[in-house]
Amino acid sequence: MADQKQPETPPPKEVQTLQPGDSTRVEGPVIVQVETGRREASGWKKVIFAVTVTSLFMNVILGYLFWIDVTEVTGPERHVQGTEGASDRIAVIRFTGTISPPFTGMWIKQIQKAAEDDRVRGVLMVIDSPGGLVADSHQIYNELLKLREKKPIWVQMKRIAASGGYYIAMGAGEDGRIYAEPTTWTGSIGVIVPHYNMKELGEKFGVTSDPLTTGPYKDSLNPFRDLSEPERAVWDLILADAFDRFVGVIADGRAGLDELAVRKLGTGQIYTANQAKENGMLDEIGYTEDTLDEFAESLELKNWEAVEYAPPPNLLSLIVSNVKADDSITSQIMEASIPKAMYYCSWNPWVPAN
Q1: Is 227 part of a structural domain of the chain?
Q2: What's the rounded Cα separation, in Å, for the pair 284 and 291?
Q3: CB of 246 within 8 A of CB of 240?
Q4: 218 an active-site residue?
Q5: Distance, C-alpha 230 to centroid of its chain
Q6: 10 Å Cβ neighbour count for 266?
Q7: What would the pLDDT profile of 46-62 be if each residue is shown by its tens digit?
Q8: How confident is the model at residue 122 (pLDDT cuts 50, 70, 90)?
Q9: H helices of the chain, where?
Q10: For residue 92, what is the domain's CATH number?
Q11: What angle do CA 332, 335, 340 make, to 5 degrees?
């Protein structure tokens, strides 16, 4: 039987590339080749684009946080006492918590705001602080010296106004009056540089520290070895410098206390409100509302309003506080290892957030 001739298959028409969602009409035989790579590539492109955009956005936010002065953020003033809307004002600035960044800058801005406001006739510092860093305490004190050249300053102490908290209270000067609540703790005049000696603990677990340094004092305060006598002499000078400054600030700020009297009080001891008054460290025992009334009377104000400078929580401050709260244990340990000279009513080197 003769072989039947098979019909010839016409060659396919030109190749057409279709994208997902496209359609077309074809005639004759069709060869379909499915390529998934393009679709996958397109999907990955979208993912990469989304990640890139998100990354750029976060970089903008982080750049904003790290490069702007967060202390420029100020909130509305809050009525505290007196006649609301009165033209004459007493500005109330609250110093609450540890004296350290970024709160130091915020308080300095509030002091400057009070100095520049022509409606403000006087400033009441309300202090509830165990102190903090030596440098930050003095930065605030220095700003208060500028303020009191323009306007009188009085002080109200709350639960604790010790060490750096007492240091900044001296910004009121001899003409300013200091009030404390009956249960206030104050004093703690002195300097502390926190330091642990974990040499024996390290030896017990076979841990030694052998850093490479360019000088004998570069790893001073290393907790895994004893402090040498030359090192101790170096740190004694640093402590003495900060302590002498503390003594001088008090002697300048309290009319009844000379340098010798301050040095006798400067043992690091905490004093009760009554003890502090007996020793000439403050003037009266009383509460904020009474202090404001007497302050207004001394300023001869008939119609006045006390307003508080206190920036409210906002997006920026919440982000900053969350960043601090979410610090890893590693970063906290690294921070704790940095030497800190402190006017602080505690032996604890971990500076708490406000």
Answers
A1: no
A2: 9
A3: no
A4: yes
A5: 34
A6: 18
A7: 655 665 556 555 544 44
A8: very high
A9: 37-67, 103-116, 134-148, 164-169, 199-204, 229-253, 259-265, 273-278, 288-298, 315-325, 329-336
A10: 3.90.226.10
A11: 140
Per DSSP, the three-state class of 232 is: helix
Does the active-site annotation cover 158? Answer: no
Which two structure tokens, joined as six digits, stand for 106?
Answer: 């915020």
* pLDDT tens string 295-351: 999 999 999 999 998 665 554 554 455 545 455 666 666 666 788 888 999 877 554
CA contacts within 13 A on the Cβ side of 311: 19
Q: Which of 150, 218, 264, 324 is catalytic?
A: 218
Number of domains forming the structure of the chain:
1
Give residue 151's domain range.
Answer: 73-193+268-324+335-344
DSSP 263-299: HHH-SS-EEEHHHHHHTTS-SEE--HHHHHHHHHHHT
Instruction: Please check whether residue 308 lies inside any domain of the structure.
Output: yes
pLDDT score recorded for residue 32: 59
Is the residue at 234 inside a domain?
no
Among 129, 163, 188, 277, which one carries the catalytic annotation?
Answer: 163
| Single-letter amino acid code for the residue at 282 | L
pLDDT of 176-198, one tens digit each? 999 999 999 999 999 998 888 88
Q: In this structure, what token pair is assigned to residue 201?
A: 């603990």
For the stretch 148-174, pLDDT in tens is: 999 999 999 999 999 999 999 999 999
The residue whose two tokens read 């406001």 is 117
Pull the structure tokens for residue 261. 């009297």
177: in domain:
yes
